[in-house]
Amino acid sequence: MRVRTYVLIASVAMVIMSSGSKEAKPTVGLNPGDLAPRIKSLENDEDLRFQNHSGHYTLLNFWAAYDAESRARNVRLMNEINKSGSEKLRVRSISLDENQAVFTETVKTDKLDHSTQFLEEQGRESVVYKEYRLHKGFTNYLINDKGVIVAYDLTPEKLAETLDRI
User: Which helix (H) or strand (E) segment is 131 a member of?
Assistant: First the structure.
């Protein structure tokens, strides 16, 4: 009898505590449903804030010229975005090359739109590299206008499917 009383009291306490969390907001993280970490400064001192309530999604893509796979994916993603002509998508593609000349030449060689490509010259030592845990590999994130990650590690094919749904 005593055990039942304790279980009942604990259950009522849990219900009361959970009822106060209706206004819960997502936490900052790297999984779908999390708020994307803010990027404080890049080559042109532009802060990337994803909470803009503009109705646009942001594709945040990380790459480097020294990483052939991420570089090729960056080109394929940009080609898919150009092909789709989606007005709902902004692109911020961040290179973690530490050399401005390498970055500039790669953007030129790959025929990328310079307005969508940014350089984080601190590379592996940067806050961005650490906050986005890029030591596990370069990836990308699709972020809505509330700053919430809705998908990650999109291939060009998955991106096309996702763009059709939004």
Answer: helix 127-131
If DSSP codes are grouped into helix, strand and coil, which group holds residue 122?
coil
The answer to whether the CB of 61 falls within 8 A of the CB of 89 is no
Total tally of structural domains belonging to the chain: 1
Q: Are strands 57-63 and 140-143 parallel, antiparallel or unpaired?
A: antiparallel
What does the pLDDT average to over 46-58? 82
Dig out the tokens for 30 from the structure.
């790297």
H/E segment holding residue 28: none
The DSSP element (H or E) to which 152 belongs, if any, is: strand 149-152
70, 64 Cβ separation under 8 angstroms: yes
Name the strand (E) or helix (H) holding 69: helix 68-84
17 lies in some domain:
no
97: confidence class by pLDDT, cuts 50, 70, 90 = very high
Residue 10 maps to a domain: no
Query: Which CATH number is 93's domain given?
Result: 3.40.30.10
Rg (CA), the chain: 20
**Which pTM value belongs to this model?**
0.81
